[in-house]
Amino acid sequence: MTKRKPPSAAPRPDEEGFRLIAFVAGETRSYPLPRKGSITLGRSEACDIRIEEPSVSRRHATLHLGPPFTLEDHGSVNGTRLRVAQEQGGGTGKIEELRLPPGTPVPVEPHTLMQIGSVVVVLWPASEPLAPGAPAAAPPRAVVSDPSMQRLYELAALVAQSQISVLLRGETGVGKELLAEAIHQRSPRAQGPFVRINCAAFSETLLESELFGHERGAFTGAGRAKPGLIEMADGGTLFLDEVGEMPPAVQVKLLRVLEDRKLLRVGGLEAHSVDVRFVAATHQDLEACVARGTFRQDLYFRINGFTLTIPPLRERVAEIAAVSRYFIERFASEQGRPPPVLTPEAQVLLERHPWPGNLRELRNVMGRALVLCRGGAIQPEHLVFDAPQKPAEPSRAEVPPTPFPLTSGKLGEDIAALERQRIQEALERCVGNQTEAAKLLGISRRTLVTRLGTYGLPRPRRR
Ligand SMILES: Nc1ncnc2c1ncn2[C@@H]1O[C@H](COP(=O)(O)OP(=O)(O)OP(=O)(O)O)[C@@H](O)[C@H]1O
Ligand SMILES: [Mg+2]
Predict the structure, then answer these.
(1) Residue 174 shares a structural domain with residue 287
(2) Residue 142 Cβ contacting ligand 1 at under 6 Å
(3) N or C: which end of the chain has fewer CB within 10 A?
(4) What is the pTM of this model?
């Protein structure tokens, strides 16, 4: 069946309205643009479009509204770039980065990726939907295809059968919460509630009252008795996220619940029995917290009946394509359109990225790619990686941009440098054992040996 286009009421290109979309911190923002004039972009409040990101200068660049549209850099610290895909003998793949000379307006086309510091912005015709369609229908599902993850999920299914407390470890965004849910679903408590709480999101008093509940009149404002989340998880599982952030006073109370399976509400006199399975998660080094004295050792042993460590995404490269396709299909179906193809060139780039934000970052990248590919195949130029998370912004300093950390201006060279470094690191970690290092890198041993030759790295001797 073919859809007929409606009679052409579309605006002519020269009178069409535009908006600017910006990918900031995993979010897609959309700013309607006026038809004429100039729009300043920067970190300062005085700018027309304010981008509060450390790599963006206070007054970074100006977009002169066309046609033709031009972009002008104002001598920003981290520069303004255009990212242009090169058509090459039938296949795309090469991306050219053009750093704008300060003070000179340079023409830009709609849909071209413009990089302001490390933030990517795109000029977008207002008539083209950005396509957030129906809300997610199906709950998120874990794609498990890397052998290391298959083993981990098998182990989790075994552990789920018992009552034992489980501690989930792994970097941010690796899928700890999804695994916690999987444990609940595979446990004999699957019919019971799965309750989650983020221990980092509450002050000490609030966390205590959220977890343990309170009796009427326990404190000012406690007009009614309220059960806590531990009670609400009775017969099911309580997921304690960011458990390393739990304040000491709450740790003591929780320890009692874990030891006696009895719970006392705030302001209560009588303890109630509870039947709860605890799954906790942390991306912190809990042993170090114990050593520092910020986390109780007795509680550490109680919640750590069994530890499951989820490897970071860069160590399960074999899974990246499958998870990418899962996100593509999911987003496309939410938007009610057919899923675009992921080109092999884009897949290679995904497999080489170090993924500091793990699966959350991959999800964000795929969400943006679906916008940028406009129904066509997903090419390398549609992959916009997350800006790195900086712990704290120095007041005036502007950190160098890194989604495309181009010192040389050539993406390929940066990727090669990164790959060389990762190979060296892997060999060091595996004390020169090439088979182990290849496994860690998610490549075959033969590929590793070839790469050693390519990068002029000596083949380690057997130790
Ligand atoms: N194996 C997977 N397959 C598909 N999606 C996944 C997988 N693992 C994680 N995700 C998705 O990635 C995102 C991050 O996962 P999750 O919230 O479970 O990570 P986390 O380890 O709890 O992160 P944090 O430490 O930041 O709390 C979620 O949207 C989740 O649905
Ligand atoms: Mg989490």
Answers:
(1) yes
(2) yes
(3) N
(4) 0.70
